[in-house]
Design goal:
cytoplasm, EC 2.1.1.77, Rossmann fold, Protein-L-isoaspartate O-methyltransferase, globular, methyltransferase, binds S-adenosyl-L-homocysteine, seven-stranded mixed sheet, PCMT
Amino acid sequence: MIQNFQGMARKLTAKLRAEGISNPAVLAVIESTPRHLFMPESLAHKAYENTALPIGQGQTISQPLMVASMTQLLMQHDCHKVLEIGTGSGYQTAILAQLVDQVFSVERIAELQYQAKRRLKKLDLHNVAMRHGDGWQGWKTKGPFDGIIVTAAASEIPPALLQQLTDGGVMVIPVGTTSQRLIVVRRFGDEFEQKELGQVKFVPLVPGATV
Ligand code: SAH
């Protein structure tokens, strides 16, 4: 059992700051969010290390630096209504929920979604709506979104997600199979501007199916 996570969380945010995360709101939320509640208890002692960890079903909770970088990218664009693809543990969802007005999150594995929902409720985060379904399709009836974050690597940018961005909206998405890059897409009317950032490593955005 982790009794006092604040000290460990403070060390983690110091590391993130040293790695270039500068948005004070993002750092503050990471520092106050109990990441150890988003994983199996047997791994909780590693929760404040800067690493991805297994959460069951062959999936992982993303590395804190990746969560911080992607969140910081979205926050640069004044996002209020965000779509997340790949709820997983719900940790990234929890971070976003404390920074924006509304989060919509889609996950294909029902068991992971169920656990994530319970964790968010326990933390009193109620501005999140979840959907069990295929992230390649986004969540059309709730869109458009001024921010979209995809936390699994897509073989190509899902066309449905582009259509669910507002004019001026921004999407952060890892793209690629064996080698993946983080891509930032901005919508300007019917034009989409793409910027390629560094190399990343995510579990795949599984095509189509639901489990
Ligand atoms: N943000 C999460 C990352 C979880 S890993 C966290 O930090 O915990 C990526 C998640 O994407 C997995 O839970 C996986 O089941 C989910 N996923 C993969 N393909 C998907 C798809 N097509 N639609 C919805 N979710 C998908």
